[in-house]
Design a protein that fits this description.
By secondary structure, the chain is of the alpha/beta class. The chain has helices at about 1-25, 40-60, 80-95, 105-120, 145-160, 175-190, 210-215, 230-240, 285-300, 305-325, 330-335, and strands at about 30-35, 70-75, 100, 120-125, 140, 165-170, 195-200, 220-225, 245-250, 270-275, 340, 345-350, 355, 360-365, 370-375.
Amino acid sequence: MKKIIAMLAGATMMMSCGANQSQEESSTIKVGGMGPLTGSAAMYGITVDKGAKLAFEEINANGGVLGKKFEYISLDEKADPIEAVNAYNKLTDEGVVAILGSVTSKPTLAVAELAAQDGIPMITPTGTQINITDAGPNIFRVCFTDPYQGSTLAKFSKDKLGAKTAAIMVNTSSDYSDGIANAFIKQAEKEGIKVVAKEGYSDGDKDFKAQLTKINSENPDILVVPEYYELSALIATQAREIGMNSTFVGPDGWDGIIGALDSSSYSVVDNSYFTNHYSTEDSNEKVQSFLKKYREKYNEEPTAFSALAYDTVYVLKNAIDKAGTTDKTELTKAIKASDMDGVTGHLTFDENNNPIKAVTIIKVQDGKYIFDSVVETK
């Protein structure tokens, strides 16, 4: 009996050693990615996927990392938390050393909780919900958070726009919208901006004129629309149709709003402002190099989500270089110690694994995104 147990133990050790040896001898380093590549949020997932793929291809062309090439496995999670969990399980079965993703906040949070349990390093390029990185010490983000955007918009509205009154249109079905709105209201009070109206709507709504008419009766200096660009374009159009003259301000979800409008309607968002992660007008060599490569590869303009994904890949690449290994514990430590210049600015991580970085303010005018200013982190 003792002999049989010893034989079984020996076989188990051989299998374990064989698996480790196979991982070490693998010619590639597998990295998992996920995002909504189909469905209503596909526009965000696809642009993230393109930015990540561009970076991985660039790194591989320059020799890879640790003498190996990256193998990027990207799965569609349809902006659904259950699908995201299924994607995570498939990726871990593939033996990925890290997860890049997800893109929108709810699926990202669902996966973050699993990755935290397993200790697998995870970096979301674009998941802005504040509690994502609370899941564990191995969960990071490259974008700034919803509350940070909201407070920055309030400061900008006071300092640059001289706003004294504000109104808010908030999507009550969206944690993203709600988080930004609440932070704006809190900071607006500190800045001396009076919030004269707050109107809500839900996912799927298309007619906002009743809410906008109530808001317009208060004649606010600014209208805050914490929403993604497709609905923001619709809200802005209807606001102008009822005669609203307020200045519109929004978060990074506004990036792409020009593409959601017909050229004859560009004027509805003239003189609007939104927070973003970088500007294509930035003369920085990293920015211009990224733009050139992205345009050549895809024949289109990158969004900020593309740039964030591109930077996320380089955070991982630099961390693997620094750690000298893909061991998940050592890799997590190396990511935490990141200190790099990226397309979206200089990046380090704070105690909550959120990035310490500046916010770019973009002005929309005549169908163009114009660099306005940078709000530095204090």
